[in-house]
Amino acid sequence: MANVCVITGGGSGMGLEAAKYMPKDKIIVLSGRTVEKLERAVNQLRDMGYTVYAKACDTSNRESVKQLVQFACELGNVKNVINSAGVSPGMNGTQESILRINALGTVYINQEFSKVMQEGSVIVDVASNSAYLLPSFIIPKKVYPLAETDEAVFLQKLIKRSSLPKDEYKRKGFAYSLSKNFVVWYAKKCAFEYGTKGIRVVSVSPGLIATDMGNLEKEEGGSLIPLTAENRMGKPEELGFVLATVADERNGYLAGVDVLCDGGSTTRMKEFKKK
Ligand SMILES: NC(=O)c1ccc[n+]([C@@H]2O[C@H](COP(=O)([O-])OP(=O)(O)OC[C@H]3O[C@@H](n4cnc5c(N)ncnc54)[C@H](OP(=O)(O)O)[C@@H]3O)[C@@H](O)[C@H]2O)c1
Q1: pLDDT tens column, 78-116
Q2: Is 240's C-beta closer than 6 angstroms to any atom of ligand 1?
Q3: pLDDT at 275 over 70
Q4: pLDDT value at position 272?
Q5: What is the mean predicted confidence (pLDDT) over 146-168?
Q6: Percentage of residues in the chain having pLDDT higher than 70
Q7: Is any atom of ligand 1 closer than 6 Å to the C-beta of 32?
Q8: Reduced to 3 states, what is the DSSP secondary structure of residue 69?
Q9: Tens of pLDDT, residues 198-252
Q10: Which CATH architecture describes the domain 3-266?
Q11: 28 lines ligand 1 (CB under 6 A)
Q12: Ligand 1 atom 26: residue of nearest CA
């Protein structure tokens, strides 16, 4: 049976770059909401010699995620899931849609795929270094478990917490940071839950990366650039390589942690503040 690697948000950015580092004997499934984008990405990978399929899926909809899981299972044994789907504050959307896609989307992906994945498989959830930016008193960790038991209250409480700033962009920024802080927490929770079945779960937190999303957020997020060790944004292919290596089965002991790949900006901010 063939091994399958599913990449949500795989039609662009670091998800698509991750596919380019996958071994060619794996079947790649790229997923996202925009079919044309997926088709362009599929053609690019086919030209490179990959066996690759597109499957439209909105990760904020559990039924849609279930259909993605079924599609992938019909192709073979799902060995790697890279959950790179996400939206940012500068895009059209609301605090709620950011939380639904980034936070609840991660719950649906992890829960539904873990039902079919077997020993030796891995889920990589893409978070963000913005998970580390909010002061701890704003982060409602006690609310996080509700994502699995009472979505409505989970959303209501996180929306309330992210409504502290007056400015609309900042509110969405808080919602984004909270959603990604949740992803870091949830990936760790899943690592211990699924670890007993031999499924590894890791989150990766990129800094500002020059994808479509990163370029859109550059004005606000750009203040982090001088805090990086090399004074630059990350390249999509650099993050693609990180995602692919973290997802590689040979990295068997990497679980229950967040891999912070942000050029050092968080470390500088917290430990070596620049004057
Ligand atoms: N670039 C950065 O600076 C940066 C920094 C930290 C973290 N991240 C995170 O890295 C991940 C990848 O982002 P990127 O930088 O590679 O940007 P990107 O090119 O915009 O990729 C995000 C992908 O997610 C897909 N997507 C969005 N909402 C979705 C949904 N509901 N269901 C399924 N797919 C969805 C988008 O396609 P459709 O719109 O067609 O669905 C898009 O292809 C995201 O989770 C992002 O939050 C990025």
Answers
A1: 999 999 999 999 999 999 999 999 999 999 999 999 999
A2: no
A3: no
A4: 87
A5: 97
A6: 99
A7: yes
A8: helix
A9: 999 999 999 999 999 999 999 887 889 999 999 999 999 999 999 999 999 999 9
A10: 3-Layer(aba) Sandwich (3.40)
A11: no
A12: 85
Total number of residues shown for the chain: 275
Q: Distance between CA atoms of 156 and 24, rounded to whole angstroms?
A: 44
Cα(274) to centroid of ligand 1, in Å? 30
Looking up tokens 């967040």, which residue turns up?
258
Our mutation pick for probing the ligand 1 site, out of 16, 211, 243, 266, counting the most ligand atoms within 8 A of Cβ, is: 211
* Burial state string for 71-106 with b = 16 or more CB within 10 A and e = fewer than 16: bbbebebbbbbbbbbbbbbbbebebeebbbbbbbbb
d(CA 194, CA 214): 32
Centre a 10 Å sphere on the Cβ of residue 215 and count the other Cβ atoms it contains: 14
Domain layout of the chain by residue ranges: 3-266
Could you tell me whether strands 51-56 and 77-83 are parallel, antiparallel, or unpaired per DSSP bridges? unpaired
Residue 137: φ, ψ to 5°: -70, -15
| Rounded distance between C-alpha atoms, residue 123 and residue 240, angstroms | 15
Look up residue 22 and give its DSSP letter: S
